[in-house]
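The data are quoted verbatim here:
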Amino acid sequence: MKALVKLSHKKDDLKLLEVPEPVPASDQVKIKVKRTGICGTDLYGYQAVKPPVILGHETSGVVVAKGKKVAGIRIGDSVTTETTTFICGSCKFCQSKDYNLCSKRKGLGSSSDGAFAEYFCIRAESIHKLPPNVDFASGAICEPLACAVHAVVEQARVLSGEVVLIFGPGPFGLLIGQVSKVLGARVIICGKEGDEKRLKLAEILGAEVVINLKKGGIKERIDELTSGYGVDVVFECSGTSSALYSGLKLIRKKGRYIQAGILRQSVRVNLEEVLFTKEIILLGSHTQKPSSWKKALNLLFQKKINLKALVTDELPLTHWKEGFLKAKKKDSIKVLLYPD
């Protein structure tokens, strides 16, 4: 079968290769891929990627085979999947099902072969059946939705009426905005030059305010909206130090700051001001866990989240180079690949 393989840690060391078709172990299912989304970690890499490995972890497909120990999943089921392929099962985080924090965890498309392929295998415990109202394109975005649910519901614990500020109107930021809106929050999304299309979509998806940072005036606008107190919650989704510094200035005393995007650089923060003077709560949010998935799929079943609106491009796997280029450009939002 054809698969997109990350051969080394070198930049752009990717090739579409012919590789053996996987065979499920006794506790695994085999999925025929229908759609797989291109994530920023596929584009730019991160420390968990262990080449050589088939990339791709945002995916949906159909069950075509299963191991002898697998129950409750049928051949022909339309599914999506968590990204956890292996856990130790014995650490305190595994015991509480915080699999995202297990130090021995392996992930789909990073340390285990992923879904930029015709087929992949994964443990049955990670599989979720798609709600009947969710197509394969939307199903491929369930994983970033689960990440957004983890950040908004489980980490930040956003409340109705709170003012939420999001830096970065990419797919993740737009999903965090939608989940926050479902909880009753007032959503502000910021972007920079070139983000106009994404900011417009943010408005369509329910953001109360969108701000182009190039035009300035963000502090004045937020002071107006919050009577000078600052926002209740900040989600930094862009992975930039400038957004981090802005967020810490614009958040109110006792507010919550969540680093949702991957910061690929060191930063200097005045902890006396942030923690002592303002009593700001600093939080991280690392991918997703089983409880995040249950909440995310329930939102989809209730038709409270619009995933299809994020999909701008669907291309065959053999056109992966075009897909990766589109994913890097801001006129695209979520780009999906499918086997030819």
